[in-house]
Write a structure and sequence with these properties.
This protein is α/β, with parallel strands linked by helices. The chain has helices spanning 16-32, 41-49, 104-112, 124-127, 133-137, 140-147, 150-172, 193-202, 235-238, 269-273, 361-382, 387-401; strands spanning 60-69, 72-81, 87-93, 116-120, 181-191, 220-224, 246-253, 279-288, 305-306, 309-310, 405-409. Helix 2 (41-49) packs parallel to helix 11 (361-382), helix 3 (104-112) crosses helix 11 (361-382) and helix 11 packs antiparallel against helix 12 (387-401).
């Protein structure tokens, strides 16, 4: 857990008047500071410790790069576990207004479980959406129409295809550590707009958007707060082409800041109408849309424990050192470390909005632990083909969640 904030005074300078003023300002700042609410660590650890856990818990390192290919430019974040051999891959796609640094809680948990995790925002315009002309003028309805249009999704998918092809090229060229990626075991995960894109990769059909042509197969998809609406292609046709494993995650409070989804129930439509077979829907209690960003809430506290070792927090700079923690015991729970979304705003929120005010820090931290546990089990089950993970997901997950959420399978 973060230590209490401290007032740092400058070195002594000549003149007592300046020093007295500085001390007075420091005193007033300290008196006016609002105490930061923190989760009940014991409750969070009790919940997390009884959930899913593999025998693997690796130290991790994160590096950042810029890939330039043709007329496209990609900022890349790559998190690699400290383990030998080929690595399964998760490609993480952020929300509107987010960059490659988003979703750190989820990315950390997956990497600590043995996955290489590559994060990128396919379109620069999506990353910079809050500085756009529409956002500055407050015309969020127009902004939403533009960014969720078939034209924008076509550009997004084309950019993602280019980034995937560049990843494969660098792998073929034996560029370390990309040469360790196992392209027969790849998943795509996304939040908000990233979830929408991930569903198109999975097979969602949108009028005017060509079917993606990818350089390697996708074994599973995770959609955190999936997008759906009543316009365009009917649901029965829209999701009919999704045949692979998909995990959708939402809540009864899952309305977004742009207002593109006004009723949380519509986010369940993809699960309800896509063909059966390895499809899961996790519906959490109380957590708002922004709470599914994985951007670093109170759950990132260093005092939240794995059953064997505390969570690894984020570090500054261009890499994140291995934390050396260990995790053991099948079907047990654990939580990864976390960080902050670039820009300091919760993902999916308009400037000045705060959609997490109605949920307690403890409830938010427990919901994050639930997402970490279920998503890791899902990846292990369908990317690593782990039969124990699938058994936990199908039989034990509901008992673990209890009143914290509900998981359905078809």
């Amino acid at each position: 857990m973060n230590s209490p904030s401290k007032i740092l005074l400058p070195p002594a300078v000549s003149g007592t008047r300046f020093g007295a003023a500085t001390l007075a300002l420091a005193f007033l700042a300290g008196c006016s500071a609002t105490p930061v609410q923190k989760p009940d660590i014991a409750k969070v650890n009790q919940f997390a410790g009884s959930g899913y856990q593999t025998d693997d818990h690796f130290g991790i390192a994160t590096t950042y790069a810029n890939w330039i290919t043709g007329f496209r430019d990609f900022d890349i974040s790559l998190t690699i576990p400290a383990k030998p051999g080929p690595l399964p891959l998760v490609i993480y796609l952020p929300a509107l207004g987010e960059t490659r640094s988003a979703g750190e809680i989820w990315r950390t948990a997956w990497a600590q479980s043995g996955y290489a995790v590559l994060s990128l925002q396919p379109l620069v315009t999506d990353a910079r959406v809050w500085s756009s002309e529409q956002a500055r003028s407050g015309d969020f309805a127009l902004l939403a129409r533009e960014r969720y249009s078939p034209k924008a999704m076509t550009e997004r998918i084309e950019a993602l295809q280019t980034a995937m092809a560049e990843l494969k090229r660098r792998h073929t060229g034996s560029q370390s550590p990309l040469d360790r990626i196992d392209f027969s075991r790849v998943a795509v995960a996304g939040y908000d707009m990233g979830a929408y894109t991930a569903m198109v990769v999975a097979g969602e059909s949108i009028r005017g958007v060509p079917e993606p042509v990818l350089p390697f197969p996708i074994r599973a998809v995770i959609a955190l707060s999936p997008y759906s609406d009543f316009s365009g292609t009917p649901f029965g046709e829209r999701y009919a082409g999704i045949h692979g494993p998909v995990l959708s995650i939402t809540s009864e409070n899952d309305t977004d800041a742009l207002g593109v989804v006004t009723s949380p129930s519509i986010r369940k439509a993809p699960f309800e109408t896509m063909p059966g077979g390895s499809k899961y829907l996790l519906t959490l209690s109380g957590i708002p849309h922004s709470g599914m960003s994985g951007g670093g809430s109170v759950a990132a506290s260093s005092e939240v424990d794995h059953p064997r070792g505390k969570t690894g927090g984020s570090q500054g700079g261009d890499s994140r050192a291995p934390d050396g923690a260990s995790r053991g015991g099948r079907r047990k729970g654990g939580m990864g470390g976390g960080g902050s979304v670039d820009g300091g705003r919760m993902a999916g929120e308009r400037p000045g909005m705060s959609s997490t005010a109605r949920i307690s820090p403890t409830s938010l931290a427990i919901s994050e632990a639930a997402i970490q546990g279920v998503t890791t089990a899902f990846l292990d089950a369908y990317v690593k083909q782990d039969s124990i993970a699938r058994e936990w997901l199908d039989k034990d997950a509901s008992r673990w969640l209890r009143d914290r959420g509900e998981i359905k399978r078809k």
